[in-house]
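Let's practice the habit of predicting before peeking. Look at the sequence and jot down your guess about where helices and strands might fall. Then scroll down.
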Amino acid sequence: MSTEELHTKEEPLIPAKEQIEVDDELMQDINELVKSKSDYLLLNIIQDLYAQDIAHILNRLDVEEAGYVFGILPSDLASETLLELDDVHREHLLKILEQPRLQEIVGEMASDDAADIVAELPEAQQEEVLEQMDVQDSSQVEELLHYDEHTAGGLMAKEVLVVSPNDTIKKAIRQVRQFAKDHKNVFNTFVVDEQGLLVGSVPLQDLLIYTPNKRIRKIMQTDVISVTTDVDQEEVAKIFSKYDIVALPVTDTAGKLLGRITVDDIVDVLEEEHEEDISRMVGSDTVAMERRSPAQIAFLRLPWVLATLLIELGAGIVIHQFDQTLSTVILLASFMPIISAISGNTGLQSAAIIVRGLATGQVDIHNWIHPIRRQMETTVIIAAVTGSAIGIVGAVWHGTPVFGVVVGFSMFISVNISGFVGTIVPLTSKRIGFDPAITAGPFETAFQDVVGITIFLSIATLLLRWL
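Done guessing? Here is the structure:
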């Protein structure tokens, strides 16, 4: 037998995963196989796919069909797929999975993922799952369940690669190899003393550069960036972004190493925070849309709708004050919704940019002049272009240049004011301790409808004698 054949026999190649586009044609094939209960053919199609693609397929099936397909997956693939499913499908699966199967799937997960899944179970079922788990795994998951899910403690995984300052590089490499057999995303090793206190870290590449007999204490980095378990997930995300790190150790208040957070967890946090911010800005809640009844969703959204109604009544009062102007030049009414929509859209764009920047740390609340200046420079350009365009249309439509000046100048002023409000309100809210994502929407609506229309009709009234 050749050396190559021997090598292949001892270390079989890992089958390559396939990337696919989940289109209507594929879904039609999947549906037909599900209806005919063709387990073998189904498994042949999906077992070599990435878990994310399998989850995408299951999310497009109804929950009963998804449960059937999920049931034929091997445990390791099922555990990865379960984490990628949307809330509705995952909640259904957790209800129908038999205890041994659920136990098997959870046992395949890292501690942080296992804690997330166990947290979604009823309390009695949580205890049953924890009792059946390996003692060490169970204790790790139980510990993680005590932390708020939106803090560093809730994000961290207990599986962490540690070495001693007195270990040799040779010994550390052996530990890395052993650790990497069962765990993903090994980026660096953390150095702890005899009391378990974090004293340094060593990137993996450094273990390859230095001689095997060199001591870890000679090469470790002592200025380790870390967080305690109570730090909010938004702040954790900012640390990852600011320092361009891929793994972050988590300690208790005394400095004892408890776990680690990796960059893949932060990507999920950023996506979650972004969806949450956008949902709040429009007065809705993504989780509510998925999990709550229509009546519950309606009552959740009603306060925001009623607040908008009051604001719009204010706009109606403003319009009533300018009845004489509108009756003289009725064409003005045709341009009011256009100016309101464009200025409001610009303001909401500015608000979204600032809210997102505050969440990721790209916008510094203490250096508020910079984001305001940048947003206003952008808004002036938008206002000039849209104002010129609507001014030309107004002049041609009415047949007088002055009318074009009225609508064009009104658009220019309204867009700039709306952009300024969209920028300053989130910054002010953050400064005084309110959630900028919640306050940006209502204030922006108020200014786009009330202030914008007031400006428009006031200018029209002043220039009415030339029309």
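How did you do? The two ends are 98 Å apart (CA to CA).
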